[in-house]
Design a protein that fits this description.
This protein is of the alpha/beta class. 55% of the residues lie in helices and 8% in strands. It contains 16 helices and 5 strands. It has a 5-stranded mixed beta sheet with strand order 2-1-3-5-4. Helix 3 crosses helix 10. The longest helix is centred in the first third of the chain and has 27 residues, at 51-77.
């Protein structure tokens, strides 16, 4: 996903940054950590609109954690045989409000708003940017409500994380993370401090992960990179679970069993990560590949580059691209060319030495030009999306004449 420029990579990093800074503030109550948490949250806002889901999960998890801890304190304060009058309901805002320093909260909010304002205005050059950052949710709500081709059942994320196998494809599973995360969730609510250093942090991560997972599961709009948001919480809880299992070991035998299982499971995850990002990086048998650019597109880029080298204009050669759908990432691959035009339909004057057109437009420029242009190949942009390459006939003849000859 880093190579595919998926925003979740940055969003998840900033989420982790915000969570870490927030927890350091809880431990130290220093204004610096409050400001850094505000910085992280402002950057999350500026990265992707779905930050609101993570923000909502953070807020609800904080409420749930404070209330749970207050309930535990009330429960432990009741003497045996005593009535439940002292076990008043913890579902009140009083413990939550008492938890915060108002000045530090204001500082964090000021930093978050300042950072987002600077970025959404493109460093004060686009006054409408902050308004657009709010209006973006109007079409987004249609997506979340089902007005999108990316509608999938509630099991979509779990199938990809824990048990995925396409026809003639290898088996994929990150089940170890789920198992260890469940252990982490279980120990989060035990009171044995020899097993768990900070129950409050573990409880917060449990509430946060469960809430965020539920949100993404309920929303009909699903793309596999969205799961990275709640998988972050699972991974952190898995670390807590692994540490707890290690603390519970009381003999050399149990130490050996746990160590072997953790090493083997981690080795499998490392191998699977390599397989997903190398040989299966754009393969549809990879559970995380979704609308990825086809490797076949590179052949189109290579062909265009080779044709331009035979043209007297070189990288000054004019290229016209027509596609009603997204033609990304062609602008990146054709960045060396000085004269590239982009249209979502066939323009009035479609002709240029090199033309790239979507078959959906039915351009048929070879027939319409009385064979002055030749359709030289069909290339896959992404699954179900193709591009035709037309070349001016004299330029094509020159290109073919310069191809290396096969030797006997």
């Amino acid at each position: 996903y880093s190579r595919y420029f998926i925003h979740e990579m940055l969003l998840v990093f900033l989420t982790l940054f915000t969570l870490a800074a927030g927890w350091r503030y809880v431990e130290t109550r220093r204004a610096l950590w409050a400001a850094l948490a505000g910085l992280g949250f402002g950057l999350m806002y500026a990265t992707k609109e779905t930050f609101v889901l993570s923000g909502a999960a953070m807020g609800l998890a904080m409420l749930a954690t404070v209330w749970w801890n207050a309930w535990r304190r009330r429960r432990s304060a009741v003497l045996p045989g005593e009535t439940g009058t002292r076990q008043a309901s913890p579902f009140t805002l009083r413990p939550f409000l008492a938890f915060w320093n108002g000045r530090h909260v204001a500082l964090a909010a000021l930093v978050a708003m300042g950072v987002s304002l600077v970025l959404f205005t493109s460093f004060f050059t686009n006054a409408r940017g902050p308004l657009d950052s709010v209006l973006t949710y109007l079409p987004w709500l249609d997506r979340a409500g089902g007005q999108s081709p990316h509608i999938h059942p509630w099991t979509f994320y779990f199938e990809r994380l824990f048990w995925f196998q396409s026809p003639k494809g290898p088996l994929w599973s990150e089940g170890l993370i789920l198992v260890l995360a469940l252990v982490g969730m279980a120990v989060a609510f035990c009171s044995n401090r020899t097993i768990l250093g900070s129950a409050t942090l573990a409880r917060f991560l449990t509430f946060y992960t469960v809430i965020l997972t539920a949100i993404y599961t309920v929303i009909s709009y699903k793309t596999p990179w969205c799961l990275l948001n709640f998988q972050l919480g699972m991974i952190l809880l898995a670390g807590i679970g692994a540490a707890a299992l290690w603390q519970l070991c009381r003999s050399k035998l149990t130490v050996s069993i746990v160590a072997t299982a953790l090493l083997a499971g981690t080795g499998h995850l490392v191998w699977q990560a390599w397989r997903a990002s190398q040989p299966y990086a754009a393969d549809r048998r990879n559970p995380y590949v979704y609308a990825h650019t086809s490797v076949n597109l590179l052949k189109l880029v290579e062909r265009v580059d080779a044709i331009a080298r035979t043209s007297p204009d070189g990288y000054e050669t004019v290229i016209k691209v027509f596609s009603p759908d997204s033609y990304l990432p062609l602008p990146w691959y054709l960045r060396r060319f000085a004269h590239v035009g982009w249209w979502d339909g066939v323009p009035t004057d479609p002709y240029a030495p090199i033309i790239i057109a979507s078959p959906k437009l039915q351009a048929r420029l070879d027939d319409k030009s009385d064979k002055a242009y030749l359709m030289t190949g069909l290339y896959e942009l992404r699954p179900g999306s193709f591009l035709e390459l037309y070349v001016e006939i004299e330029l094509w003849k020159k290109f073919v004449a310069n191809l290396p000859r096969e030797t006997d």
